[in-house]
Design brief:
By secondary structure, the chain is mainly alpha-helical. It has helices at 10-23, 27-39, 45-55, 66-74. It is elongated, with a radius of gyration of 21 Å.
């Protein structure tokens, strides 16, 4: 493992400190995980684009909007066929 030094804003440091306290993970581990998630190998542009294309228009056969559907769920009433 390599050691490096970074500069953070006060807000970024506060966020990391809070997350570290919640999770029990070190600041270094949190930064490593964030870098891996953002820049790491698990990102696959072709896969992500495929998922977006597959989902495109998925709501097209419904009369209600997504917002209406969510409001019905929040009120405890399910729409027919949902």
């Amino acid at each position: 493992m390599l050691r490096t030094q970074i500069s953070l804003t006060e807000d970024q440091k506060r966020l990391l400190d809070a997350r570290s306290a919640e999770s029990g993970l070190s600041l270094s581990e949190l930064v490593r995980r964030a870098v891996e998630r953002y820049y790491g190998g698990d990102r696959d542009l072709d896969r992500d684009l495929h998922r977006l294309r597959v989902g495109q228009g998925a709501w097209g056969d419904r009369e209600e909007t997504g917002e209406q559907y969510v409001e019905h769920l929040r009120s405890g009433r399910r729409l027919s066929g949902a």
